[in-house]
Each structure stands twice: as C-alpha cells, then as structure tokens.
C-alpha cells in the first residue's frame, strides 16, 4: 500500500551538527516505527531559521538514498508558527503509517501523544 508518513523534529542551537543529528534521528525513528518496503520520494520542509545545511542532503548521504527523489522546501511563515522545525513527508510502500514527532515538534501534533 502506498502511504505518506509524516514526521517532524526541532533544533535548538541551529548548528550543522545538531541539524544533522536531528534529521538522522527523525529518519531512523520513522524507519523503526514503520515497515518501509520501498521509498518513492521524501520531501523535507524547514523553517526559515534552518539554513546551514539541507536535511535532504543529510538523509541521502546517511541512508544511501542516491536513487530516491529528495527535496527540501522552505516553509511558509504564519503568525504563531514555531521556529526551528524540520518536517518530513515520506511517500512509500508500507503496511504502516505511524507518524513521528520528536522534541518540540510534538507540539505540532498533540493528538499523537
């Protein structure tokens, strides 16, 4: 079954190291909670304050996703938006669809607690 599995995490210090670690942690947790059989594409979005490194590039390198379509977009800013957020949309074949929200990003989906 083709599903779109959503997730998000947050960063506090906006360093390349932290953005890399949080991106890898998010992807690892998505893969751990879902039996991903085939990845079709992965789209990341970041708030405007995350601008030192591209989470899609981190995921490509960390997980060997050379033949997967990856993209990263800047999020639209709205009044009351939370800063320091990396979101992901994983389009894949999987029998599961368990969303993952880590750190401050849990505030985005309190219904998933």
Would you tell me the structural class of the helices and strands? alpha/beta
Categorize the overall geometry: globular
* Number of beta-strand segments: 5
Helix content: 10-25%
Q: Give the biggest sheet.
A: 5 strands, mixed
Mean pLDDT: 95
Order of neighbouring strands in the sheet with most strands: 3-2-4-1-5
Strand fraction equals 25-35%
Order of helices and strands: EHEHEEE
Instruction: Give the low-confidence spans.
Output: none
Number of helices: 2
What is the radius of gyration? 13 Å
Distance from N terminus to C terminus (CA atoms, Å) equals 25 Å
Structural write-up:
With 113 residues, the chain is α/β, with parallel strands linked by helices. Helices cover 24% and strands 31% of the residues. The chain is built from two helices and five strands; from the N terminus they run E-H-E-H-E-E-E. The protein has a five-stranded mixed sheet with strand order 3-2-4-1-5, with helices on one face. Helix 1 (16-33) packs across helix 2 (55-63). The longest helix has 18 residues, at 16-33. The two termini are 25 Å apart. 29% of the residues are buried. The mean pLDDT is 95.
């Amino acid at each position: 079954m083709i599903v779109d599995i959503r997730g998000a995490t947050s960063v506090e210090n906006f360093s390349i190291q932290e953005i890399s670690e949080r991106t890898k942690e998010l992807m690892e947790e998505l893969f751990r909670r879902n039996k991903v059989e085939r990845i079709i594409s992965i789209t990341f979005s970041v708030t405007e304050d995350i601008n030192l490194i591209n989470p899609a590039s981190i995921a490509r390198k960390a997980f060997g996703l050379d033949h997967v379509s990856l993209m990263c977009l800047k999020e639209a800013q709205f009044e009351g938006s939370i800063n320091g957020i990396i979101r992901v949309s994983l389009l894949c074949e999987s029998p599961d669809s368990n969303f993952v929200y880590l750190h401050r990003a849990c505030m985005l989906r309190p219904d998933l607690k």
